[in-house]
Design brief:
alpha+beta, Jelly Rolls, Collagenase (Catalytic Domain), 3 domains, 6-stranded mixed sheet, 5-stranded mixed sheet, globular
Length: 650
């Protein structure tokens, strides 16, 4: 049984409050609305990237649209754990197939090899960007090698773990946590436990059982925790909290199948609290053992926890503006990252999501962890590996933007408002379908057909401002070249060189894809210049709901201006993907055109402080710097404007 909690005290998972505008008098939606009926605790979980959707079987393709590529109205239904596993499996197969080609064999053979110069068995020699080993001769300049292998070894502090007795119930919150002794008398422990044996399990009040453990750690330590469930149906999820109840990180299936593996790099000395929970049971308050929202799976688990000094190895490479760097690591490290010249972390990863690169992308994949970066300035940049023990092999490849060698050297973006017959299999859909034209949705926003041309012009202008003029005005790249055209004023040029398109029309039912928008790929470097994206219009024109433009329209609204702005922003979001951007965090203080779906759609639409769209206080939403979406597992600050500006370089 799962019980919803209407009021559960202080929600410490990062509660997001939605602020809908005044309901509109838009025509009724015959297909019904798409509102997400989430509890406050579930909304908080979505904001923090905590998964709780039903899972696919291990290794199976999850249901629904790929959340890395889709702008979801309700991301709470996305199986992020399943997608992460599925993408890694597909990426490994893709990398193997690529290596077997003549081009792949030639690239591997041409790699220059660097050996880490830190002595084996030691750490501290290259553990920060300031002490990074310089990879001279690796770059895109004349006479330099653009492909490299970096071979080294991680040597973290050795840990001997002590077996300790199982917890006594009730141990379901921070105040009741069992002290592991880590940080005081030992560096690691092993123990056993059971989810469901306490007063809040299926034999108790059925709010759900949690087991908490106290860990003390020092700056530079890595806290590592792993569950194993050799018998029973328990599907674990691990949380790590700061002493004040702030959620620092969580992990679901990092140890394979339904077991969890959590790693956290400690920035400052402190006391931390590890929680073992069952997947799908969300705790509203980590200081209240009875604040779970219901029993899910139960059973026994084995647990190992350590806190020890990590070994981090950094390397530096001298990049030019527009260089596209791809990194993949095999061997012991579970984490790979890139820092810019500041140095600031710009793309950290503990996963391989390279399957969502287009097939033509030459960026490497198939590793324990894979990342990429598009350089926005000249100078020494840094990449590093960590959270492992033993040998590693990093593949590092550098490329220049593909348009530099193309004729014509201009990227074109075609906006198709006419409806289309499209093969949605490229998005994971059912195959070739017919999508309704943009004009079919005008009445749902209360806009007469006589104003269709005016609205298309306004949408085109919005897209042009978002993804062309803003990038030109930034001054980042004076060789940025993009032309935006549309089906009202221009012939359909899709299929010609360097033309990508966005179809603005159609519905979820027609496409077979449950999303607001979806791109064909995420393409750092814009290696495929002929891609497709969809902006579906049924949710955006529903009578109400946080993802409907109608929610923010009132009699005082300039309907043409607001609908154009909202659709233009969503369209720029999808184009941002196939020009190189991942999702950013829609719950952060920064508002970004690449913000993921879910809560806070009013921010993506540009609704101002008055909560009404189409008024003088509406915001101009742009690309820029923001942290990655927590649900997708990447770490760092993504420059969504810079990735596009240098991906489209003539």
């Amino acid at each position: 049984m799962r019980r919803s909690i209407a009021t559960a005290g202080a929600v410490l998972l990062g509660l997001v409050t939605l602020t809908p505008g005044v309901a509109s008098a838009a025509p009724a939606n015959p297909a019904g609305g798409h509102d997400a009926a989430l509890t406050a605790v579930e909304k908080a979980a979505v904001a923090q990237g905590v998964p709780f959707a039903p899972k696919a079987k291990p290794g199976a393709k999850p249901k629904g649209a790929n959340p890395y590529l889709a702008n979801l109205a309700d991301p709470s239904k996305a199986d992020y754990s399943g997608w992460k596993t599925y993408l890694a499996k597909q990426a490994a197969a893709k990398a193997t197939a690529k290596l077997k080609t003549k081009a792949g064999e030639a690239a591997a053979a041409a790699s220059v090899i660097f050996d880490e110069d830190e002595f084996d068995g030691t750490r501290g020699g290259n553990d920060t960007p300031a002490f990074a080993q310089r990879l001279r001769g690796f770059g895109t300049g004349e006479g330099q090698a653009s492909s490299a292998r970096v071979i080294g070894q991680l040597d973290p502090e050795a840990v001997t773990s002590t077996a300790i007795p199982a917890n006594a119930e009730d141990d379901g919150d921070i105040n009741l946590a069992k002290d592991t002794g880590i940080g005081a008398t030992r560096s690691g422990v092993t123990t056993t436990g059971t989810i469901g044996d306490g007063p809040h399990g299926s034999l108790g009040d059925e709010t759900g059982d949690f087991d908490f453990y106290k860990v003390t750690a020092s700056a530079g330590d890595v806290i590592s925790a792993q569950t194993a469930t050799p018998t029973g149906a328990l599907d674990t999820l691990l949380y790590l909290y700061a002493a004040d109840g702030t959620l620092l990180t969580q992990n679901d299936d990092g140890a394979g199948n339904f077991d969890s593996l959590l790693k956290y790099s400690v920035p400052a000395d402190g006391t931390f609290f590890l929680s073992v929970a069952s997947y799908g049971n969300l705790q509203a308050d980590p200081f209240d053992s009875g604040s779970g929202d219901g029993v899910t799976s139960e059973g026994a688990y084995n647990l190992s926890v350590t806190a020890s000094q990590d070994d981090v190895d950094f390397f530096s490479v001298n990049l030019k503006k527009g260089d596209v760097l791809g990194l993949s690591v095999t061997g012991s490290p579970a984490y790979i990252t890139v820092y810019d010249t500041a140095p600031k972390e710009v793309h950290g990863s503990n996963q391989d999501a390279s399957f969502i690169y287009p097939p033509s992308s030459p960026l490497p994949g198939g590793g324990n962890a894979v990342t990429d970066y598009v350089a926005t300035q000249n100078g020494w940049h840094f990449f590093g590996v960590s959270t492992g023990s033993g040998r590693y092999d990093i593949t590092a490849d550098l490329f220049r933007p593909v348009l530099e060698g193309n004729t014509p050297p201009v990227q074109r973006l075609f906006l198709d408002f006419d409806g289309a017959r499209v093969n949605t299999a490229i998005f994971g859909g059912p195959g070739t379908v017919n999508l309704s034209p943009f004009a079919a949705f005008l009445s749902r926003w209360g806009i007469p057909r006589a104003q269709e041309d005016e609205l298309i012009d306004a949408i085109t202008a919005s897209v042009e401002e978002n993804i062309r003029q803003d990038l030109i005005d930034s001054g980042l790249n004076n060789r940025f070249r993009l032309q935006v055209t549309n089906s009202k004023d221009n012939p359909d040029t899709f299929g010609k060189p360097n033309v990508s398109r966005i179809i603005i029309g159609g519905t979820i039912d027609e496409s077979g894809i449950s999303t607001i928008g979806i791109a064909q790929s995420i393409d750092p470097g814009n290696f495929d210049t002929q891609e497709t994206a969809l902006v579906l219009l049924d949710v955006l024109s529903d009578p109400s709901g946080p993802a409907s433009l109608n929610t923010y329209l009132t009699p005082v609204s300039d309907r043409i201006a607001f609908v154009a702005q909202g659709i233009g922003n969503v369209t720029a979001h999808e184009a941002g993907h196939f020009f190189g951007n991942f999702h950013t965090d829609n719950a952060s203080a920064a508002v970004n055109l690449q913000d993921s779906g879910g809560a806070n759609f009013q921010n993506l639409f540009g609704v101002g402080p008055d909560g009404i769209g189409g008024t003088a206080d509406d915001a101009d939403v742009d690309f820029g710097e923001d942290v990655f979406s927590p649900a997708e597992g990447f770490i760092g600050t993504e420059d969504t404007l810079g990735r596009v500006a240098f991906g489209i370089t003539s």
